[in-house]
Hints:
Layout: E1 4-11, E2 18-26, E3 32-38, E4 45-50, E5 53-58, H1 64-68, E6 72-73, E7 77-81, E8 85-91, E9 96-100, E10 103-110, E11 122-134, H2 142-150, E12 168-170, E13 175-182, E14 188-195, E15 201-207, E16 213-217, E17 233-237, E18 242-248
Antiparallel strand pairs: 1-2, 2-11, 3-10, 4-5, 4-7, 6-9, 7-8, 8-11, 9-10, 12-15, 13-14, 14-18, 15-17, 16-18
Amino acid sequence: MNTTIEQDMVLYAADRRIDFRTKVDFQERQQLLKAAFPVDIRTTYATYDIQYGNVRRPNHWNTSWDQARFESVGHRFADLSERNYGVALLNDCKYGYDVKGNLLRLSLLRSGKQPDHIQDVGEHVFTYSLLPHTGDIVSGGVVVSAHALNNPMLICEGKEEKTEDTFMTIDNPQVEIDAVKKSEDGKYLVVRFHDYAGSSQKVTVKPNFCFRSWSEGDLRERRIGEICGDDEVTMTLHPYEIKTVLFEF
């Protein structure tokens, strides 16, 4: 109709991810723009990324409750997987999915009249990606790929003083660091991480900076564990458990 869509379809030599880099000048009223991918997957549920984990929802609409969930929230991806193969639909800023049967759909733009009569009208830039993978979302690297899409590597001019350096290392690929921040009271450096695979994990976090001691904290950044002077942090996580570590300088 009155909308202009420009799209680059990007394929990689060493990555299964297919990016759809999109620019839209959206000039519609009471229209909904979606991207849809019918995939060759047979399963009874879809897996959606949420904060600190994921959730499974049925991909069939048999009951009134199912029909009411015509769209579900998903942060970085929605995935359909069989035991040994799957396909994920990733995004960098669009969070409304509807999955029915083997059809993956992502809501991109909508121009309703309420609560804003010109909502989504104008220019937009976003990327969504299709990721075929082996195994499930963990063994297929879906979470890692979705993180890479949402946090691309930044390149800037400068002069390196070290051949290799990192602020912090973590030895378990199924544990994701969620926050590195100053505590609200200004006393600690807060590092927060969680298990995203839904299984018990053992993890070692090694900071590459000087600190006096560390202790486990709660979500309100209060100490709940003993003060430890070791130069690395070793913990065991329960499925989807969030851990907070407080470093004192």
